[in-house]
């Protein structure tokens, strides 16, 4: 990707088609929520995981964020949905940044995705 | 303009007028035009004649004497030369300077540099509409004040300051007055015969001329002495050394001449475009217009929208090219300091979009911009947790 092109094709496609954008309020008897934010750029990310039989039946996100973080949230949702709660992937921001060609200057914002998944992990013990 | 994009970032730079390109091409290929205008041989004299002709064209646009214009590389250099040059020339009288936080970085950062070197700088905040109160300025001027710098048209909001009132106040108090007029020259009437301005910065690429060429106007008054900030030659009245780029100077002259002839028509055109754009987006819930209609240059419309992240908003608008705040500041990713000075929150400032347009913009361009902006706002809001 050229330095003058800030978004690769994958980021553009994920940003334009964020199938998992939304929330799950009232859909599942048990829904885990992780709400994280950072002050420097005002970015905020909320993950909603609808739990059914110990599985993540559906997962959604809402983001006040740059296209890279939106794309990262969509990637995590696509890969986590349908899996066991106990198998919720441990997301590493640096791995996502490499996959999505995210500029290093956005590391602070990209850590939100890691924080949000960790929050879901922390709640999963009482959800299973 | 390229068929695959809609360019609405005229406040950053305008597309170059093809008539300017033609003049520059003739200059680059013509006999003698390539020579150094400081050379005394015949080729140099031909080049110097072209430089003089361009200086007269620019002087005509401004209502100034040609000898009062110094060619520079653009408004940033002109600002540096005016502010640093005047401050140092008058430092023996006093070291107090006045400006505003809403100035372009070329001005604001020059004042910050002078502050680090022992000058005292007073920063006057604008009111909620971005305007400077002359009462506030009058109270801030002291016996040791040497220079006031207030821009004519703000590059982010289009807000027009009352330059005449500010200049008259400065003259009455014996203080030099500089204005960065990069956004107004060639677009609004700037007649220095009727404006009490001592120093004025401009650049050609804001009025359909080439990038890399600008000028500093220095009034013909005894108090208006400016020290050079670069050294190495005697060009431009010993104030700006270096070989002049003749083709750029010629391009600036032609652009100035065209601006003088076509300004009124261009102004009416951008008023119509601005009204069409505003009519198309004004009903969007949570929209804020940054800068009032009455006191703004109509070629700039700056809006913020609640609950929407600025970078995502801009990506969703492609292929419409707009700016988030000042283009010069867009790489920082920080909310606009100009909008924060107007009292906007960081979140509102960060969502700001500056539409700016000009004589090559069409109604179809505006219609596409309206459609893309509305769609992008809707897309971002559909993902946003902010209500």
Task: Tell me the β content of chain B.
Answer: 5-15%
The helix-and-strand class of chain B reads alpha/beta
Number of domains of chain B: 2
> The CATH topology of chain A is what?
Sufe protein. Chain: A
**Largest sheet: spatial strand order of chain B:** 2-8-7-6-5-3-4
Brief overview, please?
The complex is a heterodimer of chains A (128) and B (387). Chain A has 128 residues and is of the alpha+beta class. Chain A is 38% helix and 21% strand.
Describe the fold and architecture.
The complex is a heterodimer of chains A (about 130) and B (about 375). Chain A contains 4 helices and 3 strands, in the order αβββααα. Chain A is of the alpha+beta class and about 130 residues long. Chain A has one domain: Sufe protein. Chain: A (Alpha-Beta Complex), CATH 3.90.1010.10. In chain A, strands 1-2-3 form a 3-stranded antiparallel β-sheet. In chain A, β1 and β2 form a beta hairpin. In chain A, α3 crosses α4. The longest helix of chain A is centred in the last third of the chain and has 18 residues. Chain B is an alpha/beta fold. Chain B has 12 helices and 12 strands. In chain B, the strands form 3 sheets. In chain B, strands 2-8-7-6-5-3-4 form a 7-stranded mixed β-sheet, sandwiched between helices. In chain B, α4 links the parallel β3 and β4. The two termini of chain B are about 40 Å apart. About 0% of the residues of chain B have low confidence. At the A-B interface, β2 and β3 of A face α9 and α11 of B.
């Amino acid at each position: 990707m050229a330095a003058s092109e800030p978004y690769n094709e994958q980021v553009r496609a994920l940003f334009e088609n964020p199938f998992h954008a939304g929330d799950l309020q009232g859909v599942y008897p048990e829904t885990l929520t992780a709400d994280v934010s950072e002050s420097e750029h005002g970015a905020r990310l909320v993950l909603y995981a609808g739990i059914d039989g110990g599985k993540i039946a559906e997962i959604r996100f809402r983001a006040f964020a740059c296209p890279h973080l939106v794309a990262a949230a969509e990637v995590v949702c696509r890969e986590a949905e349908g899996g066991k709660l106990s198998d919720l992937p441990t997301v590493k921001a640096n791995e996502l940044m490499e996959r999505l060609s995210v500029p290093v200057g956005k590391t602070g914002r990209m850590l939100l995705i890691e924080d949000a998944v960790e929050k879901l992990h922390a709640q999963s013990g009482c959800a299973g | 303009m390229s068929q695959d994009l809609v360019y609405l970032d005229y406040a950053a730079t305008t597309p170059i007028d093809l008539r300017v390109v033609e003049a520059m091409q003739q200059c680059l290929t013509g006999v003698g035009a390539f020579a150094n205008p400081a050379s005394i041989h015949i080729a140099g004299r031909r080049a110097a004649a072209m430089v003089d002709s361009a200086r007269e064209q620019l002087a005509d646009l401004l209502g100034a004497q040609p000898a009062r214009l110094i060619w520079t590389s653009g408004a940033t250099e002109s600002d540096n030369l005016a502010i640093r040059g005047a401050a140092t020339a008058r430092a023996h009288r006093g070291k107090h300077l006045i400006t505003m936080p809403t100035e372009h970085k070329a001005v604001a950062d020059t004042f910050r540099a002078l502050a680090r070197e022992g000058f005292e700088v007073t920063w006057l905040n604008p009111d909620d509409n971005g305007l400077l109160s002359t009462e506030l300025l009058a109270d801030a001027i002291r016996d040791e004040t040497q220079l006031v710098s207030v821009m004519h048209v703000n590059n982010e909001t289009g807000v027009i300051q009352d330059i005449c009132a500010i200049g008259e106040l400065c003259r009455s108090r014996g203080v030099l007055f500089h204005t960065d007029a990069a956004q107004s020259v060639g677009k609004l009437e700037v007649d220095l015969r009727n404006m009490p301005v001592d120093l004025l910065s401009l650049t050609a690429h804001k009025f359909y001329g080439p990038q890399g060429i600008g000028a500093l106007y220095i009034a013909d008054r005894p108090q208006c002495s400016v020290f050079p900030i670069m050294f190495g030659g005697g060009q431009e009245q010993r104030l700006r050394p270096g070989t002049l780029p003749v083709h750029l100077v010629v391009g600036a002259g032609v652009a100035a001449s065209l601006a003088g002839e076509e300004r009124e028509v261009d102004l009416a055109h951008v008023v119509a475009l601005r009204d069409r754009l505003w009519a198309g987006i004004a009903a969007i819930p949570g929209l804020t217009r940054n800068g009032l209609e009455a006191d703004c240059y109509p070629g700039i419309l700056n809006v913020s929208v609640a609950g929407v992240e600025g970078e995502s908003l801009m990506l969703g608008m492609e292929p419409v090219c707009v700016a988030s705040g000042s283009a010069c500041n867009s790489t920082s990713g920080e909310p606009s300091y100009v909008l924060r000075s107007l009292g906007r929150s960081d979140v509102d400032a960060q969502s700001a979009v500056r539409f700016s347009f000009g004589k090559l913009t069409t109604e179809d361009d505006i219609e596409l911009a309206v459609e893309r902006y509305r769609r992008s706002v809707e897309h971002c809001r559909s993902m946003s947790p902010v209500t």
